[in-house]
Write the structure tokens for this entry.
Amino acid sequence: MARRTPPIEMEGDHQGPVGRFVLAPLGAAVLSLLSYLGRLGLFLLQAVGLIVVPPLKVQRVLRQVQFIGTRSLLVIALTGLFTGMVLGLQGYYTLTRFGSEAYLGPAVAISLITELRPVLTALMVTGRAGSAIAAEIGIMRITEQIDALEVMALNPIRYLVVPNVVAGIIALPLLGALFAVIGIYGGYLIGVQLLGVSSGTYFGSMTDFVAMTDIRNGLYKSLSFGLLITFLCCFKGYHTGYGAEGVSKATTEAVVWSSVAILVLDYFLNSVLL
Amino acid sequence: MSEMPIMEVRDLCKRFGRQVVFNGLSLDIRHGEILAVVGRSGTGKSVFLKHLIGLIRPDSGQVLVDGQNIHEGGSRGLARVRERFGMLFQGGALFDSLTVEDNLAFPLREKTRMSAAQISTAVAEMLKGVGLEGVEGKFPDQLSGGMRKRVALARALVLHPEIVLFDEPTTGLDPILVRSIHQLIADTQRRFNYTAVVVSHEIPQIFDIATRVAMLHNGVILEVDTAARFQCSNNLAIQQFIAGRLEGPLTPT
């Protein structure tokens, strides 16, 4: 297969036991980690670089927006609704203890807009679309369709990766906005309709307390996650192992890695943005 | 056909981990010939083809097209060289999310400035040329193995390449289909006048269409000669290989 680095060989025979059993494996592990990170970085550079170097495959981008975005609508609406309802319920009982259930609206809205909107949307999209992206590209790799593109002197990254990355960057913030709106109405259903907070208080205090920066920070996160998950899932599929097992492993890793990476990046973004 | 090489492989060395695949392999590929590359399974015939088109980089040694090292001009140079190639992959490597028509139209849309009408005429003509009609709207998975090979061949030829690489074009087909695909290769080669490198296990059928035959063994070309002379080779390994005998210098593994 193309561009696969050979495994690093160890020549540890002339070393002592410490060298052979500790240092050499450790060094090999560090080297292979570094080369892996290098490949990851180069892949990201290419994927992002080719967004701005024309031609952009607009049709493929639209198709992927439809796949990542439109077809995630139902799952995002459902998770948004129930997350909002849980927040309404939990928030009400917690706030009642402090006698401040009037702040239910902003409490629900702020947690949704800054945190749950980008994170949960990204996690749901990873599960629904990210796995499919990794599997599709992985199958194209093992059936030599990626080689076929290269043989035609076409850059596979431009055709397979860039459209997904662009679509992710477009779709995630939109899905996130939908998630937040539905979530706020979910909180309204529980807080106002069921538990008796007044509708005016719920929405009125929301406009007082939710700042533009909250909305903006959530948006930045959505944009970053859109890039992160599509890129990671494409990378995993692109560098899949051999056969059906290789693709299934790549798909699993794509989902696990993306999910973990979302939470890790979320922490770092929070520490920078807040 | 002329004696002039269109491609030269010089001292090719490649190893994957500890496994040595090529160990100083050299071979000339001449203008307009059909060169068959034979050898036992696992000797690196497909890897050899992938070296010819730059999908794999050699550890050392050179692959020259018209005297130019294909890796010399970076990725752009390589892309330019690849435009002279067509390749038929072992499994066809048709884009399974596209119809037959879109598969053939894809290189035309991406690489030429032809109008939609011209493209659809060219696609229909090319399909007719490989003996297929009325399959334009089908997906690759809906075709039989033989039909898929034909579509893949049509796609490999659609840009009229100068050099076409065939990676086991007849694996998994019945003997009649094997002959018909071979015939198709010979016909299209005459019609479009390309140079063909065919990796094949079809002994002895491949000798009918090959101009020359090269045997790959132990990381080098054991012998390369015209099909007729190759079959009468004195080399015991080649005799054993052609006859498919268990006894001889080649040990079955």
Remarks:
- Chain B touches chain A at residues 15-18, 50, 53, 55-56, 78-80, 82-83, 85-87, 89-91, 93-97, 106-107, 110-111 (CB under 8 Å).
- The first strand of chain B starts at residue 5 and ends at 16.
- The helical segments of chain B are 45-52, 74-82, 100-111, 116-129, 145-157, 175-192, 227-231, 236-243.
